[in-house]
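COMPLEX REQUEST
Ligand: adenosine-5'-triphosphate
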Amino acid sequence: MTSAIEFINVSKSFSKKDGSIQTVLDAVSFSIPKGQTTVIAGGSGQGKSVTLKLILGLMRADSGQVLVQGTDVTRIRGKELEKLRTHFGVLFQGSALFDSLTVFENVALPLRERTQKSEEEIRELVMTTLAQLELSGHEEKYPAQLSGGMRKRVGLARAMQLNPEIMLFDEPTTGLDPVMSQEIYHLFAGTQAEFGFTSIIVSHDIPKIFNLADRVIILERGNMDVFGSPEEIQWSEKPHIREFVKMTMGDIYQSHLVEK
Ligand SMILES: Nc1ncnc2c1ncn2[C@@H]1O[C@H](COP(=O)(O)OP(=O)(O)OP(=O)(O)O)[C@@H](O)[C@H]1O
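STATUS: Structure written out below.
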């Protein structure tokens, strides 16, 4: 299976104020297959956002290789890095919409900034995506006039504009109620199936988010455990994974744990 992303012995540490060193990633290796959905989970401060930043080249690894579609991000800079980033669609917490721009303008932004398309072409593309994400009729509204779920959908519409091969979602359902979160998950599953991009989702919303996952990566104390499917997690013998299952998946997987 071809990998969209591969970490080979990647380490990342930070110097703390008290002079000590905090190792966030300790020689981790894993690969993210093309066209699949990988969920990155783990407790607070375990390095999920650092992992996304390393993938995007927003942060540099201390050692090891971070391969994005075969290119080592740790070795490129400037224009080359910018070009590589065009392969990504990014939806971060809070959707990061521009409040002073309408829905239409927010979604059109990447096309206006990154392509030579005419305004006519841009209108057609934006209106098509808005229709796909059930946002038709809202194009002249401003973000403040939308619900949280709609803002996420606008963020998703914008992230999809340049037909990215890889989508990164950082806590995509933060701040949404369970009904809206469910709606967003449906939308992810639908758009992923339709467009076939590689999805990487960082989320605390376990076990719900696991329904979307082809594979799961759990980060803890500098190490990563990679599971081929969410079901595999429950059979892990590792105490910290069993603890994670108990804390986050509770009753759903409890019976299996008891049976073991
Ligand atoms: N630029 C930085 N300088 C110093 N320390 C940093 C920096 N970025 C991250 N860290 C530290 O690295 C650790 C991992 O951070 P990260 O943001 O990746 O955690 P996370 O798993 O995404 O957590 P959360 O779920 O709370 O968002 C944290 O302890 C954080 O303080």
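REMARKS: Confidence is low (pLDDT under 50) at residues 254-260. Residues 14, 24, 42, 44-50 surround adenosine-5'-triphosphate (CB under 6 Å).
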